[in-house]
Each structure stands twice: as structure tokens, then as C-alpha cells.
Amino acid sequence: MIPLAKSKEVQAAEAGNMPVVALESTIITHGLPWPRNLETALLVEETVRTAGAVPATIAVIGGVIQAGLDKSALETLAQARNVSKLSRADLAPTLATGGDGSTTVAATMICAQLAGIACFATGGIGGVHRGAETSFDISADLDELSKTPVTVVCAGAKAILDIPKTLEALETRGVPVIGWRTDDFPAFWSASSGLPVPLRMDDAETIARAHRLRGDLGLEGGQLVVNPISAGHEIPYLEISPAIESAIEEAEAKGITGKAVTPFLLEKVLEATQGRSLEANIALVCNNARLAAEIAVALNRLD
Ligand code: PSU
Ligand code: MN
């Protein structure tokens, strides 16, 4: 039996045939600092509700996958230190040992699918790191997108990654990368990375139909919808890039490897850019939550 529990809100949504949007928890434990992480988690959930869907923030607590966390569980998670960051590899071992952890994009996709949730919002996905030709550092998020039938909405990828290689890796894995009302692949803080996005869609219904058709065709895997940050919140690449360069140098000098790399880089960039990148980060996650809710509503209508 799968140790999976749903919050009251998610259970009620299921009973009432309401659309549900999954949300990841690594962004809370490893992506944003306390107390803004809690504030953001609550704000993102509220954004999903306002847009007509029900939020299900996912984490593992005491060896049980939780689909939907109440306020006190979110608070505990947001304040906890040294929380395990769970990706595909860690999920079953953590359940077996009765452990706790926050879920990455990859693990959240797996849990969402188990909970019957087809749509998921986050900030940025993991990807191919710069220097991956020697380090082999490629996020499990990319393989997951090719395996698990969940539509993930993000703001593209952070420039801590090698964006051209990340796009190539997604193409190799047959993951549809869909620009939301844009022809450019967004780069998290910037609306454009300077690279074209492979596909473009301008309405949520089409994204929902593509999701369904992918399943009907027997193609495994999900879709990646990339939603550019709004113009008012953009941070020019030239402004953010020195922080990224020095974070990468510091990670190399300190010999940071494995799953510690992404949280280390996120923390360093955040420190270096102070408030501005944090505000942008929060704004874009909410923007993605709104779009994911729209897609979840459209998926719900197709049923
Ligand atoms: N990129 C971001 N913010 C994040 C992450 C990535 O801009 O919070 C988190 C997500 O949870 C993502 C994970 O799934 O880091 C990827 O980690 P890794 O590169 O170790 O696979
Ligand atoms: Mn990695």
C-alpha cells in the first residue's frame, strides 16, 4: 500500500470534482529564506484558490506522502532546518524509514500523479548545470518530465544552469516545452533567455487538450509550460549575472556536489542580489500558480 494522505481541502475537492494544483515544497525548504518562504507558500496557495482551483502542497512527513498541507504543517516545514531534499531516488527509501522531506519538481510530479493531480506550479525547474560535460550534473527533473504525466508550469530555468543544454536535454527526452503567450524561452528573472521556445500556446484549453492527447497517444511523460515573468518584475541579465558567476565559482572552490549544488547556488544568488530577486521570485511563482489553476480548470472541463 502506498502511504499517501490527502488534506481535508484536497479530499473535498476530489469529492466535489474540483480542479487541483500541486505545489512543490523544496522551494520552501531550500529555495527561499524564512520567513518569506512561509509567506510565499501561503500566498501561492491563496492565488490558486482565487483562480478557482484547490492547492495541494506536497511533502513527505513521517514516512507518508502528504498531498495538501495545512497551515501548521507549512509553518513547521518552513522553519525546519536540514530538511532532506527528496527527488525520485529518495522517495521510497524515505517512506520505508518513516522519514521527512521536501519534494523537488521530480518527486512532486511522482506524488501528484499518485494523488490524481495532473497540473503543478513551481518557480524554476532543475536542468543541465554549467560544466555538465565534466560534472555530469543533470537534474532528475528532466527525466521525470519524460516519464510522469503531469503538466508543470514554471518561469523557465535560472541562468545558474546551462539553458541551451537544458533545452537540448528536454528535446532529447521528448518533453513538449510550451511557451505561454511567448516565442522566447524565459530565464526565470528575465522574460527571455534569447533562445526560442519550441512550442507556443495562447490559451489554457489548448494546453489541457495537448495534455490529454499525450496520454491518449500512449506517450509517457508530461509537459513543461514556461510562463515569462511579468515586465514589472524582470531583473536584467546583466544585473543578476555577476551574482551567478561568483556563486558558481564559490561552489566549485568549495567542492559542492550532488543535490547540494542547486540549493547552494540559489542561496548565494539570493544573498548577493538581496531583496530584489526575492520579490521577483515570489511574483513569478504566483504568476505560475494562477496559470496552473487555469490549466487545471480547463483539464477539469475536458473530463
Ligand atoms: N530551481 C529554482 N528554484 C528551486 C529549484 C530549482 O530556480 O527551488 C529546486 C526545485 O525543487 C527543483 C530542484 O526541482 O531545486 C532541483 O534540484 P537538482 O538540481 O538537485 O535536481
Ligand atoms: Mn544535480
CATH topology: Indigoidine synthase fold
Number of helices: 13
Which shape, going by the Cα principal axes? Answer: globular
What's the CATH C level?
A: Alpha Beta
Major sheet, described briefly? 11 strands, mixed
Question: What does the radius of gyration come to?
Answer: 18 Å
What fraction of the residues are assigned to beta strands by DSSP? 5-15%
Query: Please, how many domains?
Result: 1
- In CATH, the homologous superfamily goes by the name Indigoidine synthase domain
Residue windows where pLDDT falls under 50 for at least 5 positions: none
Helix-strand pattern, N to C? EHEHHEEHEHEHEHHEHEEHEHHH
| Share in helix | 40-55%
CATH architectural designation: 3-Layer(aba) Sandwich
Distance N to C terminus: 27 Å
Report mean pLDDT, rounded to a whole number: 97
Question: Which secondary-structure class do the elements indicate?
Answer: alpha/beta
Active site: 24, 158
GO molecular function, one term: hydrolase activity, acting on glycosyl bonds
Enzyme class: lyase
Function: Catalyzes the reversible cleavage of pseudouridine 5'-phosphate (PsiMP) to ribose 5-phosphate and uracil. Functions biologically in the cleavage direction, as part of a pseudouridine degradation pathway.
Task: Describe this structure as you would to a colleague.
This protein is an alpha/beta fold. It has a single domain, classed as Indigoidine synthase fold. The protein contains 13 helices and eleven strands. Strands 1, 2, 3, 4, 5, 6, 7, 8, 9, 10 and 11 form an eleven-stranded mixed beta sheet that branches. The model has no long low-confidence stretch (mean pLDDT 97). The structure holds pseudouridine-5'-monophosphate and manganese (II) ion. Homotrimer.
